[in-house]
């Protein structure tokens, strides 16, 4: 009785063996999955590794973005930079990385502000526009690099946005330091046609309005040229004042540029219209 039982158990064992062999093949099949579907195993990043390996790469990329000429694009591996940020955030270095980024940008803006203060008056407005355009272009590269930190640290823990914080730094360390010098120059240039190129004037006013809207009530006439609905709505009682201001501006333009209204002809003075008889060429010469 015992021997048949042994044979039956042996048969069951032999039947179960293919199932176990199929089960053994599943781990092998998992190993053949594409790399994107495999779980990422990340080693711990120490603070020393962050300071010596990861942050220097990010710092170099940020400096290049902050100093590039507007319109130019430096070949930076955004994938590599994003990967550095991702690893540092996952290893709980978000706060340190955020503080390092802010300190680096603040130092750059303070140097820019000092350079603007030493600029000659005839080049001051153009240099301010260059510095502002350069910084705004740099933000277009810095914000995507630190997007992962922005999502999981700046937005979730600080309840703000990284790009907005970087814009506030420019307002604090550059724009507010030069308002008292910049706007008198812009107002003076407004009275002298083409003293500042229209694209430069428009870019400065529009960008500063987006950064610091409370400047518009302080300089309403200047902002009203480029920003709609800055001035209060006009009523019927304001029409005489507007007509008088328009007449005064026209008179100042005539006196400054030497234009006149009396003579609109293109003739030179002293020229008279001389009419010459037109020969009747259609008549035969020997008509008689």
List keywords for this structure.
10 helices, disordered N terminus
Distance between the termini: 158 Å
Helix and strand composition category = mainly alpha
Q: Approximately how much beta-strand content do the residues carry?
A: under 5%
> In one word, what is the shape?
elongated
Helix share bin = 55-70%
Number of helices: 10
Cα-based radius of gyration, to the nearest Å: 37 Å
Low-confidence region ranges: 1-30, 35-41
Q: Characterize the main sheet.
A: none
Helix and strand run? HHHHHHHHHH
In total, how many beta strands? 0
| Mean pLDDT rating | 80
Explain this structure to me?
By secondary structure, this protein is mainly alpha-helical. It is built from 10 helices and no strands. The N and C termini lie far apart (158 Å). Residues 1-30 and 35-41 have low confidence and may be disordered.
